[in-house]
Design a protein that fits this description.
5 helices; 210 residues; globular; alpha+beta; 4-stranded antiparallel sheet; single chain; 5-stranded antiparallel sheet
């Protein structure tokens, strides 16, 4: 969505300033951005138009590739969610800890009902680590590791190039990858997962992002 977040750039810059130099900071609050991202603002409306009014942000990560924190990720699916407290529930597992927070792989059907949005603060060209997407790969369900290469080979590959304020929206389970940046500039990206579902009792979404 070209320019969908252009009016939010000052607030986004302030959010990243508060994050410091962490490569990928998992947020527990959206601060001044809460109304725009989880209320009736432009980004919330963008998501609600696709998922309905019950959709809400359930995880937020501030990514900032710098010379000190530069990384690459091979082709993979995002399969974990962040919950408030671990509780062993049928269909949820395995468990991991990320930045001290409990993460778990939920039933894949939940992931299939989620959306991911990426809000870009910086220009993203071919040299500064655009996200690369295997278009349509989310329709293959939970992809086994040994099947990833074949699906990627037979998919149309898209680079998520962007200008400041642009927003990319994609199905959370889509296969994606990211190279290390070869540019002096980031990019800085705020990534949010949205879901309209509650979790199986007693599990609850971790972050009070609304």
């Amino acid at each position: 969505m070209p320019g969908a977040a252009i009016d939010l750039l000052p607030k986004l810059a302030a959010l990243f300033e508060a994050c410091g130099d962490a490569a990928g900071t998992r947020l527990t609050s959206l601060g001044a951005l809460t109304p725009e991202l989880s209320g009736i603002g432009s980004i919330a409306e963008l998501v609600n138009g696709r998922m309905g009014r019950a959709a809400r942000p359930v995880r937020a990560i501030a990514f900032d590739k710098t010379h000190a924190n530069n990384w690459a990720l091979g082709w993979h699916q995002d399969r974990t969610i962040c919950v408030g407290q671990r509780s062993d529930v049928h269909g949820y597992g395995p468990w991991t800890k990320k930045q001290g927070m409990d993460h778990v792989e939920p039933p894949f059907s939940l992931l299939e009902r989620m959306l991911t949005i990426r809000i870009h603060l910086d220009e993203v060209g071919p040299d500064n680590a655009p996200l690369t997407i295997a278009s349509g790969s989310h329709r293959h369900g939970r992809v086994k590791d040994e099947d990833v290469c074949g699906i990627v080979t037979n998919s149309e590959i898209a680079q998520c190039l962007a200008n400041p304020g642009d927003v990319w929206v994609y199905a959370t389970p889509v296969l994606h990858a990211s190279a290390a940046s070869t540019s002096k500039l980031g990019p800085r990206v705020l990534q949010l997962n949205y879901c309209a579902d509650s979790l199986a009792h007693p599990l609850e979404w971790a972050s009070n992002l609304t």
